[in-house]
Amino acid sequence: MRKIIFIIISLIVTQALFSQVRMRTAKNCNCKFNTNASFTWNGACKNGYCNGYGTIQWYGKNGKKTGKIVGHVKNGKSEGFCIMYYSDGTKLFEGNFVNDKRNGHGIYYYADGSKYDGEWVDDLKNGKGTMYNSNGAISFQGEFADDNELVEEAESATTLTDIEIQDLLEDFCEDYYSSCFSGRKYIWHSLNVINIEYKENNVIKVTGRHSYKGSYNITYDNMDYYVYITIGTNETTIEFHKKAKADLFHPSDYWEECS
């Protein structure tokens, strides 16, 4: 019986150690991050781990910069919207992370100039997505499973690419967010697209999360939103709904609208 208990305890300890095996301390501070490579951290620390918004800069064995990631970190792992860069400064990936893995919407830029714009689950292409070749033309659009192309979508007159929708909403928030939502300030590039649904009458419904600064400069992260994009003959209209935190006038979280 004691031998069995000892084996179980040993397995638990081994698993705990294995989960931390990649944690490495930064060159310029005592913060840890989940990586095997040498790195510096420009950001805050919490309980000995990189935490919050900042920049991880990686270095090779020769001390030269090899790439970086800019974005949100939690307990030494990427968590939330981040942008990764190649060593030459060009984008490698931009999108959402959960527990240090690509999850949700993201765009991967391949070295040959092609790219994937779509959904991810645990670092693999899963769900709806679009592949572009190096000259920007669509090579595949449809469903992916575990990095493999499955069923291609039929073309639609109202279809916008994921990156077009992302850019459209970013521009809308930059131009109208503060005036629509009583001086609240949208946090640039915090908007994550989780789902895109094409409806009748040239209407696209988009749902996701975003972050903003409210009264007293308080930051509210990962707040829900949903948007109706109507594509007209002469113009495109946007109806933006966002979740707001409870306050003196609202006993619980509530929805606000901007159009």
In summary, what is this structure?
The protein has 259 residues and is mainly beta. It has helices at 2-19, 162-180, and strands at 23-25, 32-34, 38-46, 49-59, 65-74, 77-85, 91-98, 101-109, 115-121, 124-132, 138-145, 148-152, 185-186, 192-198, 203-213, 219-231, 236-244, 254-258. It folds into 2 domains: 21-152, Histone H3 K4-specific methyltransferase SET7/9 N-terminal domain; 162-258.
Walk me through this protein's architecture.
The protein is mainly β and 259 residues long. It folds into two domains: 21-152, Histone H3 K4-specific methyltransferase SET7/9 N-terminal domain (Single Sheet); 162-258. The protein contains two helices and 18 strands. The protein has helices at 2-19, 162-180, and strands at residues 23-25, 32-34, 38-46, 49-59, 65-74, 77-85, 91-98, 101-109, 115-121, 124-132, 138-145, 148-152, 185-186, 192-198, 203-213, 219-231, 236-244, 254-258. Strands 3-4-5-6-7-8-9-10-11-12 form a ten-stranded antiparallel β-sheet, with no helix packed on it. A hairpin with a 2-residue loop joins strand 9 (115-121) and strand 10 (124-132). The radius of gyration is 21 Å and the shape is globular. Residues 1-21 have low confidence and may be disordered.
